[in-house]
Amino acid sequence: MEEPLLENIGRKIWWGVLGVLIVAAVFRYLLPVSSPEQLTENEDYREIVVYITGAVNNPGLIHLPLDARLDDALQVAELSNDADLFVLNPAQKLKDGQKIIVPYKTDQLVDEGVVLESSGEEPVKNVSATVSVGNADGKVNINTADLEQLDAIPGIGPALAQRIIDYRAENGLFSSPEEIQNVSGIGAKTYDKMASSITVGP
Fold first, then answer.
1. What is the pLDDT of residues 60-82, one digit of tens each?
2. Which site among 31, 115, 196, 201 is 20 to 30 Å from 45 CA-CA?
3. Alpha carbon distances (Å) from 147 to 139, 143, 144
């Protein structure tokens, strides 16, 4: 009696183990687990999206690899001729959703009445010949000056002159000469260069 009973118990255990193995195989078939190779492959296809603006030829959204650096974004956006790379770090690692503002060159040298662009180009404007335009005391009225007159102000180049005009169109006239520092690219040092040459008077 004992041998058939033991044999019957052993058979039930064997069938139970077999059933568990079959169920596990079915679940594995229905819910496959990605292999390390597949995970690596999926990781490679991930990307980030950044927004770049400022001194670039192609501003806007840029799709880049997950491990992209600032240099990758700059190559896609194509830097303009007046971009200032001195304050940027091309090796900087980017993050998804990041906004990148490429600054313009604003530093200019004034020497003996001649404006020299910071890029080392040839003299482009004689200050003494044009700064007197716009006001009886030789100051330029930044509320009424056109692009050429603004370009003649010490510390201002064509790019900054256009930004001053754009600022006036969007925000109205300046109430004081100091307000010109609200224009992007005009800081305290640049303002010090032009302070004695500008006015908002009639």
1. 999 999 999 999 999 999 988 88
2. 31
3. 15, 11, 10
Q: How many domains does the chain have?
A: 3
Residues 88 and 66 in one domain: yes
How many CB atoms neighbour CB 193 within 10 A?
18
Q: Residue 132 pLDDT > 50, yes or no?
A: no
Question: Which residue, of 78, 102, 126, is where some domain finishes?
Answer: 102
Angstrom distances, CA of residue 50 to CA of 28, 42, 60, 153: 39, 20, 8, 36
**92 plus 112 within the same structural domain:** no
User: What is the token pair recorded at 103?
Assistant: 């600054």
Indicate if 82 and 138 belong to the same structural domain.
no
